[in-house]
Design goal:
nucleotide-binding, binds magnesium ion, globular, GTP-binding, binds guanosine-5'-diphosphate, Rossmann fold, cytoplasm, about 170 residues, alpha/beta, 5 helices
Length: about 170
């Protein structure tokens, strides 16, 4: 099994921390899958019978300048081509304009989307369920996975779930 995965989320939600945790030293392994110029491969995780190719999808944030419109189109096309999208949010912060904006972009995309709620080490466990519920009513995510990219909680479970969508 092999597939492309795009991690989408506002700055500082923990995308790089997650990639570093799952790929770490294995980051140098490159895939033989065709690579388009607009998609930068950030890392490839090779497990026994699965290869997960994480790609960078720039431009999905609210545009700060005119070029942003073009970037947004490119980003949306990329989202249509990947096998899975991980939408990462920060458990400490509520659903905001940034998330709303990104979810709007998902409307035109048929790619399966997971909601990854990161930084659960920073919140009280009782607060997790309300967060999950508030996101679930915004979009029909295929899976909702709370993790701590920093401490590693639930990251293995997320990888298992990713596997089933490749
Ligand atoms: P990115 O902009 O989405 O790539 O976010 P980064 O991976 O650079 O992380 C931004 C900040 O959040 C860094 O200071 C990380 O150490 C911190 N961070 C990332 N994941 C976690 C987490 O699971 N728990 C906590 N407490 N901090 C985290
Ligand atoms: Mg980053």
């Amino acid at each position: 099994k092999s597939g492309f995965i795009s991690i989408i989320g506002r700055p500082n939600v923990g995308k790089s921390t997650f990639l570093n945790r799952v790929i770490g030293q294995k980051i140098a392994i490159m895939s033989d899958k065709p690579q388009t110029t607009r998609n930068k491969i950030q890392g490839v995780l090779t497990l026994e019978n699965t290869q997960m190719i994480f790609i960078d999808t720039p431009g999905i944030h609210k545009p700060k300048h005119k070029l942003g419109d073009f970037m947004m189109k490119v980003a949306q096309n990329t989202l249509k081509e990947v096998d899975l999208i991980l939408f990462m949010v920060n458990a400490e912060e509520g659903f905001g304009r940034g998330e709303e904006f990104i979810l709007e972009k998902f409307q035109t995309v048929n790619t399966p989307i997971f909601l990854v709620i990161n930084k659960i080490d920073q919140i009280h466990p009782d607060n997790l369920l309300p967060i999950i519920e508030s996101y679930k009513e915004k979009y029909p995510f295929k899976e909702v996975v709370p993790i701590s990219a920093l401490e590693g909680n639930n990251v293995d479970r997320l990888l298992e779930q990713i596997k089933t969508y490749l």
